[in-house]
Every structure is written in C-alpha cells, then in structure tokens.
Amino acid sequence: MPFQNAPAPLARALAARGFTAPTAVQAAVLADDAKNRDLLVSARTGSGKTVAFGLTLADLLLNDAGRCVPSGAPIALVIAPTRELALQVRSELEWLYAETGARIVSCVGGMEPRKEARALASGCHIVVGTPGRLCDHLRRGALDLSHLKAVVLDEADEMLDLGFRDELETLLDAMPKERRTLLFSATIARDIAALARRYQQDALRIDTVGTNTPHADITYRAVLTEQGDMAGTVVNVLRLMESSAAIVFCHTREAVRQLQAILTERGFSSVAISGDLGQNERSRAIESLRHGQARVCVATDVAARGIDIPDLGLVIHASLPSNPATLLHRSGRTGRAGKKGTCVLLVPPARRRLAERLLQAAKVTAEWSGAPTPAAIATADAERLLAAPFLSAPAPEDAETQTLISRLAAEHTPEQLGAALVGLWHKSLPAPVSVRVLTPDARRAAPRERDPNRPVRERERAPAMDGKWFRLSVGREDRADPKWLVPMLCRLGNIKKQDIGSIRITQDHTLVEISPDKAEQFASCASATDPDEITVEPAAAPRKGGGGGSRPAYADRKPKGGRSFAPRREGASKSNSSRKRKPK
C-alpha cells in the first residue's frame, strides 16, 4: 500500500479513494521526526491537509487492532473557520475512519444546538466545529475537553482574519496542558507565530508552500475589459473556457445577486453564495454544485471561505482581490490534487497598473488578452463538438434504435444530419455576448489638442439635485479627491456619474449627495462592501454655506499630506487599511 506508515484501516480507505501516494504535507506529518510532536504546518488549500491531520491523529485514537475504543468525552478536536469547511472536514474524516468505529460530531453555527449537545452527550471520539459554536457548548457544559489528547487548528490564519482570536484562546485555555497541538495555516504570519509560541511546545515546523508562491498547476490569465462589459466578459470567459465547475468572485452581495441573475438568464446553471444567505440556502447551493446540478458559483470572498467544489477548473475574479494573499487563496480553489486549473482576472483599463502590481507581488505571471469574442467561442465550440465522446460511442444494439438509425441514414444526406447535429449542439449552449475587445498592448490615445479658435465656454453648474446624503470615512487628510471618489462611488453603489450630486470634503470625512431615485440602491450596495473598503453611511444634509468643499471647488485642488485612499495606491501596501472592521 502507498501509505506505509499509516494504520491498515486508514491505508485501505485511502486506496479505495484512489490515493496512490501521499502528498507533500501528508508525507511530512507521517515522517518519524513528526511523531508525537506539536506541528506548525504551512500548507495551501487543496494540498491534502485534512487527510494529513487525520493520519496524525490515528496514533491517539486507534488501538493495536485498528479500532477506536469507546469514549465518552472527545479525544480530538478540530477547529475550522467556517461551517462549510467544518462539515467538509467531518465528511473527509468519516470516510478515512470508516473501518475504525470512530464517532465524529460536528458543532457549527446554523445547525440545531440541542441536537449537537445530545450527540456530544452520547459520546464521541472527534469533534469538528467552528470557534463560536464550540465556545457556546463549552460555556453550557455540553463540550467536555478534559480528556482531549489533540487539537487541530485548520486554516488558523483565516480564523484570526475573521476575528476569532478570543474564542480560540478560550478553547485552548480550557484544554489539558498535556496534549498535541497541530496548527495548519496557509501562511505563518506574525500573529500565527505568536499563537504557536503560546500554545505549542517544541513544535516541528513543516513548510510545504514557501512564501507567497503561486500554484504550479494553475494558469493565470488577465483579461482587459471595459467596466460596462464586465458581465458580458464573464459570460464569454465561461463559454470559452468550458469547465465542469467554476467560481466567480465579486466584492459585494449586490454584485453577486446581479451577476448570478444575468448568468441564469443567459442559460447557465448557477448559484449565488453571499453573507445574506441562511444556512439551509447555502447548504442547498453547495450541494447543487457538488452534485453537478449547478455549474457556476457566484460568491463574495468571505462567504466562499471554506467551500470545496470538486473538479473546479476555473476561477474568475470579476473584481480584483485586495492583496496578493487573497489572490492566491481565491485562485487556490482550482488546480487541486494534481489537476490543472485556470484563474482569470477581469481588469478594467483604469485598474491595469493595480492588477500588474498585484500579480507581481503574488509572483504570478499572467497572459494578457482582450475579452473572448463570439468568433473565438464558436471555434472552440466546433473543436469540442468534434472531440465529443458521444460521437465515438457505440450505437445501441436494440432493434428499435437500429431501425431508426437506418431510416435517418436512408432519408437524409450526411450534410442534413450534420447540420441538425450542429444546430442541436448550439441550441444547448448559452449564447456569447458581443463586447468591446481591448488590445492589451495598446497605449491610450494622446489627448486631442484644443482648437485655439474654439470659444471657451464657462462651465455651468448642475441644477440642485435635492438628493440623499451619505458620509464617507475619508477626508482631506486621506487625500480625498473627486477624481477618484466619483469612480469609486459608481463602483461601490452600482450607479452612474450623473447620479452623484455635490461632494463636500472636510478634514476627516466627505459628504456625498446621491440622486433620490438611486439613494436606496446606493445604500444597499455600499453597505455590502468588503471590510477593506471605505465606510459609507447615511448622513444629514449639510448646512448651506457650511464647511467643506463641493465637487467643482475640489475638482482641480491638489491633495496635501496624510495617507491616501486613492485607487492608485491600492494593493501597494496594507498600511492604509487602518479602518478595517472586525467581523462579528
């Protein structure tokens, strides 16, 4: 068997699942120098780390006969950042320990806590849960950690990013001092290292990733497209790069809702996953993806954490990730288990430099191109049809089908049959969209010189809008400037420039007027922004003649001093994210 150091029941389970050899992280945790030690492991998503720590726990759970002895209180605890990841881990451990008699209980938010408490009271060997729900059971006395021999922190960096430090420390402080602590993280940042120093003893450091290195099995492509053609470009990318499963990332819940509606209307089987879904809705969406009933998942980054979609061959960033780590983490959902994957970034021309800096910081080389055209998609469709497995499949042998085939061949020419087949093939596929194709190496046209004889008109002020006002958490000290505020507001609120009225910039904040008919939509979209974005909240109308500048007064004003939230500085550093909020 390929896993020579694994207990026999687990080795048989792995062989039945088609595992022929351990991955790098699995081999590392099975090595002799890792036995009975605390482990600090950096491994990317999809590297086989669930099986890795499942193998590591075997020495504590199994007797010489390869069985789990009856146990009241749990022997091992696995903590994961999200419901989906916790349930996925439980599913993996259940097939891995299927022959051993192990009882595995999950404790996650969105599920019935009393049912979980009854399962804990009935006795179990392994508990898998999220920090918040585990703390709830601990406070109520339902979770007994007194017999615990090992704890696993899966995706520890994600748990700290989501604000679960207090819950993790509560759980770790309640455990016996004599235990194994296995910490798995994509990156070992300063806060992860501090957690390891406090709660681990003589930990063995295992690095199977390297620092911010791209995935070797993922091909990166950057597609230059106009902001207004973004949805059409997503459609064309999905059509050109046919994949059994794909995920499209958007920044906001509203963007997810709109894009998923467009894809469904175009004929794609798609689901949306965002923070406003209930647990049952999320579970149904994920199951439809795993069972092939849906092909495309449109999601926000936070809501999609922990979701594992089998055979995911394509990741599309409809909005640029905020930093290199997010880019690599999002993209790492494809190219797993030795399979190839493709990652596509959709880049508006105004954000090309930001995208180039992002790719460079992530040490990723991307092939730049324009949006796929209907002609290119038609060519790819033709090649896929010619290679379709059903064309070379043996004909059914029943007499009725043979008679029908003979009649078709006798009554129609090969050209007629071929035309009918091509027509049916095209009818089954979503139609591509005609979008503007931008040439990646094209330079912006030089500004046209003004005719010196043309009369100069004095710019007219726009009439009063009498709209709704909103307060932005940036001001003059942050180098707030309408030149970048207006495009940002259009993007965040899904509005047009004409929907924006006066802009009044003060020292520490900015007041913006939005047209009455777009104010509700703007508020809904802006409230769903990523935590790294600028805070936007409703505000009272400013006093007439009060402080601050309106948009015309500030349009040509050069910002001075202070930190900047301008888009040209995004991605260069995280130092400007001091306003980041802790998730609840």
Please, could you describe this protein's structure?
By secondary structure, the chain is α/β, with parallel strands linked by helices. The protein has three domains: 8-207, Rossmann fold, CATH 3.40.50; 218-377, P-loop containing nucleotide triphosphate hydrolases (Rossmann fold), CATH 3.40.50; 468-564, 2-Layer Sandwich (Alpha-Beta Plaits). Helices cover 36% and strands 15% of the residues. It is built from 20 helices and 18 strands. The strands form three sheets. Strands 3-4-2-5-6-1-7 form a seven-stranded parallel beta sheet, sandwiched between helices. It has a seven-stranded parallel beta sheet with strand order 10-11-9-12-13-8-14, with helices on both faces. α2 (24-30) runs parallel beside α3 and α6 (131-139) packs across α8 (165-173). The model is unreliable at 443-450, 455-462 and 546-584 (pLDDT under 50).
Give the low-pLDDT segments: 443-450, 455-462, 546-584
Task: Look at the structure and give the CATH class of the largest domain.
Answer: Alpha Beta
The total count of helices amounts to: 20
CATH homology superfamily of the largest domain? P-loop containing nucleotide triphosphate hydrolases
The percent of residues in helical segments reads 25-40%
Domain Helicase ATP-binding: 30-206
Protein name: Cold-shock DEAD box protein A-like protein
Keywords: ATP-binding, Helicase, Hydrolase, Nucleotide-binding
Region (Disordered): 441-462, 525-584
